[in-house]
Amino acid sequence: MTTHRLPAGITGDRTGWRCLLSESRRPTRWDAVATAATLVTMTVATILRTSEPTAPGTARLVFLVLAWLPLLVRTYWPEPVLAVVLAVEAGQLVVMRDLGAGLVGGLAVAAYQPVPVATMLAVYTVASRRRQRDGWVTGAVSAFLLLVTALLFQEIELIGTDVVMTELVLIAAAVGVGVRARQDTRARRAREAREQSRQAVLEERLRIARELHDTLAHDLALVDAQAGVADYLLDLDPPAARRALRDITQHTSAAIDDLRATLVLLRQDVDETDRPTDGPDPDRRADGDPTRDRALPPVPGLDRLDGLLDRFRDAGTPVSLDTVGEPASLGHHSDLAAYRIIQEALTNATKHAPGAPVSLSLRWAPRHLEVEIRNPPAGLPTSTRGVGTGHGLIGLRERARAAHGTFDAGPTRDGGYRVAAELPIRAHHTTGGPGVPGPDAAGQTEEPQP
């Protein structure tokens, strides 16, 4: 038989008495002080219940001790301690029926002393360790039991004392509920902070994975394609094979440069990426990091589209470009998203439909840019084509959503594949009207952030 024990500080699902003990703990210094202060209060209240200090009788002293002793373990067993204390103080009201003898006027309020001081601390302990609703129920039930006992076994003239006793118990419950509410608020805020931290870490991991995927995937796909071409032409056309091998070198160098730039950007803070990179920063050189002395290459956008298409064409993928409308200036996220979507779509076409022609269409509208990439069915057998994981398309959908755009991808009726996205165009407020770039727009390109 295997016994499973919970680690310290972790509780599982419990029922019955185990639930009552779920929040039991060792008394703290303040718990000990409160318990000792309660004994002092009960003793002083008993002695000074009349106009002159009076030594308590034997019966009153016995009830005082019996009501206080369970409070020593109230943090271990809050509910059982409350039940015992409540029974002792109710028993005092039942047994000592002459509590109001000799007390007149305002002194009658203290007739039941030390009742209900011990019950107040016991009720507070339960209310501060249980759910707020349970705390109110505990206080109401305790006050009701003492009130009924006093009405049944004490003189009716002490009705005012009964009301004061009930109010004191309810006040103790209210204080305990307030403490519990503050603890719940702190615990909720701590949970929310942990959840936010966990979500931030997860989002950062996804961002790093997306950047690395977008940076390396297309270069490695081109390397794979060029390696196949070189292997095919090695015997038939050695000069062409050498050109293919040189292209592989260029693609691997580009992949290394892009990877280095991506890692540097990922390591930077937001404030650092906003700084100009016109020249080296002496403060950065002092840190001893040589990579900080270099101006970072710009994050890719549609201004680098021609070079991207040329690399795929050199790898043997026929790519046609059709532009409709007047190009406009995109925002940071839209420009980067458009480039990455085209890059990933061409990479997928190269892997899954090698040699098939790919058509790229850019349709500029007044408020958005429509990007569409299509390729026909692959001419190679299914077994020779790569199998993707779908992570690239997921990342593209996230990029489009981050740019407040839309993304769609899926097979076409003829067996080909289509990737489409709609990205918003940044609004320009110039004399030329909304949505029209100003005269300096062509010469100013903001650096998009990944």
Describe the structure.
This protein is α+β, with helices and mostly antiparallel strands. It folds into two domains: 17-196; 302-380 and 388-437 and 444-450, Heat Shock Protein 90 (2-Layer Sandwich). Helix content is 55%, strand content 8%. The chain has 13 helices and five strands. The chain has a five-stranded mixed sheet with strand order 1-2-3-5-4, with helices on one face. Helix 12 links the parallel strand 1 and strand 2 (358-364). Helix 4 (78-95) packs parallel to helix 6 and helix 5 (117-129) packs antiparallel against helix 6. The chain starts with 16 loop residues before the first helix and ends in a 26-residue tail after the last strand. This is histidine kinase. Its EC number is 2.7.13.3. InterPro entries: HATPase_C_sf (IPR036890), HATPase_dom (IPR003594), Sensor_HK_TwoCompSys (IPR050482), Sig_transdc_His_kin_sub3_dim/P (IPR011712). Residues 270-295 have a biased composition (Basic and acidic residues).
